[in-house]
Design brief:
The structure is a single chain. The protein is built from 14 helices and 24 strands. The radius of gyration is 24 Å and the shape is globular. The protein is an alpha/beta fold and about 500 residues long. It has a seven-stranded mixed beta sheet with strand order 13-16-17-12-11-19-20, with helices on both faces. It has a five-stranded parallel beta sheet with strand order 8-7-6-9-10, with helices on both faces. Helix content is about 35%, strand content about 20%. The chain has two domains: about 270 residues, Aldehyde Dehydrogenase, Chain A, domain 1 (3-Layer(aba) Sandwich); about 180 residues, Aldehyde Dehydrogenase, Chain A, domain 2 (3-Layer(aba) Sandwich). β9, α9 and β10 form a beta-alpha-beta unit. Bound molecules: nicotinamide-adenine-dinucleotide (NAD). Nicotinamide-adenine-dinucleotide (NAD) binds next to α8 and α9.
Length: about 500
Amino acid sequence: MSPTTSKFLPSCIPSEITKNIASESFHYIKTSPIDGSLVAEFFGASQDLVEKVCEQSAVAQKRWQQVPIPKRQALLIDLYDELLANRSSLVESIQLEVGKIREEAEGEIQEALDMILFCIGLTRTLEGKIFPSERMNHFMFERWLPVGVCGVITAFNFPVAVWAWNAMLAITCGNSVVWKPSELTPLTSYLVSVACDKVCKKHGFEGLLTTIFGGKETGSYLVRSDIPRLISATGSVNMGREVNKACADKFKKVILELGGNNAVIIHEDANLDQALKAVYFGIVGTAGQRCTSIRRLIIHASVFDEFLGKLADLLAKTTIGDPRLGETKMGPLISEEAAKKFEDAVSVCKSHAEIVSGGKRLELYGVRTYVQPTLVKVLEYFDLINHETFAPLVYLFRYSSLDEAISLNNRVPQGLSSAIFTNDLKTGFKFLENSDCGLANVNTSTSGAEIGLAFGGEKDTGGGREAGSDCWKFYMRRQSCVINWSGTLPLAQDIKFFD
Ligand code: NAD
């Protein structure tokens, strides 16, 4: 199936339920940021519908939990095959809706597929620990059980990969998932949901992976429903604050993956050619719309002018345009609203900083969603630097000592990704030791994570962790168990209670 203009209602839901869609007021029209062409038209799910989908999900979860963990891989394998079979449609859809160039859209699908493979392996390795007991002939251990229904809310910039990070871990752990994708990526989410429907139905687990379409309102119905016991939300810091408060009220587990404000330090002994490539990708990749995109460059005074000159030359040569054309390196921003925010940020910068490269919003193919990658030399620290502008806008700082550079790295409220370029081991380790971010790299960009590690950030980025390592634990509840096989009743702490 190739992405075409489509009008649709939420999938995975029996027709008697879809009749209950009452939210005619939440009517969305999605146009492509590439040229403004119509992609999809849809209605946001009402509270009633969200509740019904959650109920259906809870029923599926109870049955799914009974499937032995290694046996769950059969469904994962089929889902892998289904996504692989639809890879080109998904890639085209991501390009059309998000504006990514082909390599990056392909990379996103690869990431989702990798995540499924990781989870297939996990079905054989989910483990619990045994602990020594102070009481004779007592066996103490921890086991992990599913939390139940997981609500997953995702951002526009990684419509498939972030779904996979969450949903694949969640079902591997025995949960079901109700997914509320971004209102800005309905077609891609729809294609994913069709694949899920097909596979879940084949395995007799309809309702295991469901999708509810809509915006903020639909997302908040999901968060406020009593049924999901875990909410994983990816998006802006403001969204995370609202979701966090609503979850706290109901003591739900919450995984927050929020905005970043990522810095790269270019140390005096850095390999500048290596750093240049990494920084270029970190600025231009996904048109600066990755949570890990570079927002700040902290450059040692001794290499500042040389590095800046090379970077500005490279950025000026960037081919901006339709991401489906082979020569394009940077597509549009997600919407005209996003491009307006970039424009507003650039005009604020003019009062406190010097625009050294780019700075303009462009009109191409009849839409004003395109912007130039922009470098801004900071003359005095100003408030906007502390906020994430979701566009290729980068603040430049000059430093003299490593301590100063690290303190600039840590100065913002967010704590997602950070990097240093250096050829000195001590400098690299000192940076890792002191960066306050969830991700810290030496000699590679802030952008471009592998799924094997836990992904996430500290401070205003929300503290959540997703994808590899032991992130599966977030999607489970821990049970501490004691089995007394002594035939008597010794009490802990040697309490003598009985005569
Ligand atoms: P957004 O906050 O506008 O929306 C994200 C999702 O949250 C959407 O599905 C939206 O409908 C939903 N939503 C918004 N308000 C809500 C509410 N009150 N209750 C429930 N749901 C709500 O973000 P966006 O513009 O789609 O994405 C860009 C942002 O996402 C950036 O800040 C970026 O850094 C961040 N992001 C973070 C990560 C990460 O892993 N840390 C990954 C990708 C994107």
